[in-house]
Amino acid sequence: MIQHSGIYSTSFKEDMAIFRTIPHWSWFIAFLVTLTVFPFFATAHILNLLCIIGITLVAVHGLNLLTGLCGQISVGQAAFMGFGAYSYGLLVTKVGLPFWIALPLAAFLTGFSGVVFGLPAVRVKGFYLLVTTLGAQFIIVWLIIHLRGLTGGMIWGLSVPNVTLFGYELDTDIKKYFFIMAFVVLMTFVAKSISRSRLGRTFIAIRDNDLAAEVMGINLFYYKLVAFFACSVFAGVAGALWALFLNHLHPEQFVLMDSIWYLGMLIVGGMGSTMGAIFGTVFFKVLSELIVIYSPVIADMFPAVESGIFASLGHLIFAIVILLFLIFEPRGINHRWEILKASYRLHPFAY
């Protein structure tokens, strides 16, 4: 790790620390203060967008542990998120559990479902593993649709009540924002801690060369299942937060295209890094918002063009963005961020 002159490490613990200097802590505290103060000046639309970004980020963090660190590709993250959302909703509405029990239990159940669908990862890899997780996407959504007595199916959906915390009901946008952001910060810290731990280094060894990792004594069967479990737990937390945010669940909220875009967020942000997941999620969600705002303007500029083309403009732009990153910057936005930080620390020297 490149540091300013005079800043050096005397132990591995210091070298792996997230915040090492006073400026690092200052920037982090300033960021938390901004998160706390911002909602009092933002519109309801901006608050909803930030909540959606935060919930999506939790799911992408989980996918980053599985795909970015462990190298096990998955296109079923949206389905696992739906599993977590409906598990939480049913535990609250049907069983009557309070949220502080229902949320971790829903996350655990989602993690267990991830282990079930991750079992083939021991025997298959690459394209074949992708097809396996694709099956999970369709199986879970099919169960949600057809278990109408529990989930409400495609017609009614499932209504989820607001959380009551210390006697206060989280029934406004600002209250939900603070609740969701607290979980986003917590899960980001957990994801970063895992990537810096022995478990994270084991995932990286499996990703880089699973045969060499097995020769070194790493139990591939166990750690691949752990990666699927961790990924699904993050998806379960994201799903529970989604249920708390919208208060109503429907199968169409967890479609295959979302799972694919989660992978796209990792590609654009930078696989294998916590900051990459953050960059990719924010970039895609802000870009999506800009497309929604300016698509009618672009359509008015080309009246001779069929209007249906602009209805799918978002998918076209997202696909082009992913292609451009794969060609020109396959390591994502986070790589550019690391280069920028290194150039700042080494200034005015070019090396």
Summarize the structure.
The chain is mainly alpha-helical.
Task: Summarize the structure in words.
- The protein is mainly alpha-helical and 351 residues long.
- It has a single domain, classed as ABC transporter involved in vitamin B12 uptake, BtuC (Orthogonal Bundle), CATH 1.10.3470.
- Helices cover 73% and strands 2% of the residues.
- It has 16 helices and 4 strands.
- It has helices at 12-15, 22-37, 44-69, 77-95, 99-118, 127-146, 148-151, 173-196, 198-208, 210-215, 220-246, 256-269, 274-301, 307-311, 313-328, 332-346; strands at 158-159, 164-165, 168-169, 248-249.
- Strands 1-4 form a two-stranded antiparallel ribbon. It has a two-stranded antiparallel sheet with strand order 2-3.
- A hairpin with a 2-residue loop joins β2 and β3.
- It starts with 11 loop residues before the first helix and ends in a 5-residue tail after the last helix.
Largest sheet, in brief, is: 2 strands, antiparallel
* Bulk shape: globular
The fraction of residues in strands falls at under 5%
- The fold-level CATH name is ABC transporter involved in vitamin B12 uptake, BtuC
Give start-end ranges of low-pLDDT stretches: none
Helix content: over 70%
Q: Which strand order does the major sheet show?
A: 1-4
Number of strands: 4
- Write down the Rg: 21 Å
How would you spell out the order of helices and strands?
A: HHHHHHHEEEHHHHEHHHHH
